[in-house]
From TrEMBL:
Regions of compositional bias (Low complexity) in chain numbering: 18-29, 61-72
CDD domains, A to Z: AdoMet_MTases
Protein name: 23S rRNA (Cytosine1962-C5)-methyltransferase
Keywords: Methyltransferase, Transferase
GO terms (BP aspect): methylation
GO terms, molecular function: methyltransferase activity
Segments for region (Disordered): 1-74
Keyword match Transferase: yes
Domain of life from the UniProt record: Bacteria
Length: 388
């Protein structure tokens, strides 16, 4: 292969496995998975959490500058520049989440948002809300919980409860799936409701299939997407680097009495996992990937979206089923246009036909009653490929 046809992953040692040597037989040993699926209990933390930090939770903080991923992860596989026609495209596509019984965006403005999560009204910083609030101060003042502190997306802060002190968790239900809302150290509440747009799309796809689809949920966090997919009839593989997040996902599974659902919970670095799946020749019908800008695997592997996303998508391409497959990528908190990931996905999927649709995930304000549509709050960029 000529050099121009093969870009190396940034910083990669030139020891990539040539394509012709892959994949290893599907029967290759699966020891690592077996170990990891025990929720990673035996895996030592790679660093001591800072005071008050929930280690590995949600959107991990940026690594110190100059941090490198262990060579073992990066050097195994070169990025392949694909040839063939790019898939058809549909842009922009704005996927909107409106309110449901258990979630709605009530109002936003002046750098904050007011949301309803189950029984609680919650105020959190929201850098995108440049406009003024719509609702009067006394409505905002009735919030049950307010996150204050660092206004960075991943900033540390603390929860303040103006009325009675609240417990750490509370039950919620979205798309017929039970899970816990929870007050976490980085302002997050255990679910990213803008993802509902992807999840209902995926649910419909799984339900329409005439066999159990195989769904891979990368960076799966508290597992709501995995539970939605499994309840709809899919066989799910859920991967997240945070032992704590996997624990929360299992608690969510237990809450909905879903212990028998076919879900493999795997505590592992997402890149390492898919590289192994590629070598084994594994295939998935739907891959969901919602990577943070920076993250760490359980053994300190560094994930940097701008460095690692092209290779991650390229490997995902290899482990997608040959027909009727779909890849859903979301990106947030990055300085990029949806066109950045749109064109990357189209390049990655060259020669596989189908359609790439990209745009933004937004949540529409619903007012106090949930029935008064207001402004659209942008939360993330996405790109979705579906085979022809
Ligand atoms: C924003 S959350 C994903 C949210 C999820 N899509 C949802 O809506 O429920 C990002 C997740 O990536 C995980 N993560 C960070 N770095 C990782 C890595 N290298 N490998 C696997 N997971 C990682 C974090 O633990 C966190 O749970």
């Amino acid at each position: 292969m000529k050099d121009k046809n093969r870009r190396q992953n940034k910083g990669t040692a030139a020891t990539g496995v040539a394509r012709a040597q892959r994949p290893r037989p599907a029967s290759a040993p699966r020891k690592a998975d077996k170990a990891a699926s025990k929720t990673g209990a035996q895996q030592a933390p790679s660093r001591r959490p800072a005071p008050g930090e929930v280690r590995g939770e949600a959107r991990n903080r940026a690594p110190a500058s100059g941090a490198r991923a262990p060579a073992a992860v990066e050097s195994q596989r070169r990025l392949i520049v694909r040839t063939g026609e790019v898939p058809a495209e549909r842009v922009p596509l704005i996927l909107e989440t409106a309110g449901t019984d258990d979630y709605r965006l009530i109002d936003s403005g002046a750098g904050e948002k007011l949301e309803q999560y189950g029984p609680y009204r919650i105020v959190r910083p929201e850098a995108q809300a440049l406009w003024p609030r719509s609702l009067p101060t006394h409505v905002w003042d009735k919030a049950d919980a307010i996150f204050t502190g660092d206004t960075d997306e991943d900033g540390m802060g603390r929860w303040r409860f103006p009325g009675a002190a609240l417990g750490e968790t509370w039950p919620m239900r979205l798309l017929d799936t039970d899970f816990y809302g929870r007050f976490t150290a980085f302002r997050h509440v255990g679910v990213f409701p803008e993802q509902l747009a992807h999840w209902s799309w995926m649910k419909a796809r799984v339900e329409a299939a005439d066999r159990p689809l195989k769904v891979l949920n990368l960076f799966g966090y508290t597992g709501v997407a995995s539970l939605v997919a499994a309840r709809a009839g899919a066989e799910v593989t859920h991967v997240d680097a945070s032992k704590k997040a996997i624990g929360w996902a299992r608690e969510n599974q237990a809450l909905g009495r879903g212990e028998k659902l076919p879900i493999r919970w795997i505590c592992e670095d997402a890149m390492k996992f898919i590289l192994r799946e590629e070598r084994r020749g594994s295939r998935y019908d739907i891959i969901l990937a919602d990577p943070p800008k920076f993250g760490r695997g359980p053994n300190g592997e560094v994930w940097q979206l701008f460095d690692n996303l092209p290779l991650m998508l390229d490997v995902c391409r290899e482990i997608l089923a040959p027909a009727e497959a779909a890849l859903v990528l979301t990106a947030y908190s990055i300085r990029a246009s949806f066109y950045s990931i749109h064109e990357l996905v189209r390049e990655t999927m060259r020669g596989r036909g189908g359609l790439v649709e990209s745009g933004e995930l937004v949540i529409r304000e619903g007012g106090i009653d949930g029935r008064t549509p207001g402004r659209a709050l942008s939360t993330s960029l996405f790109s979705r490929w579906t085979s022809a």
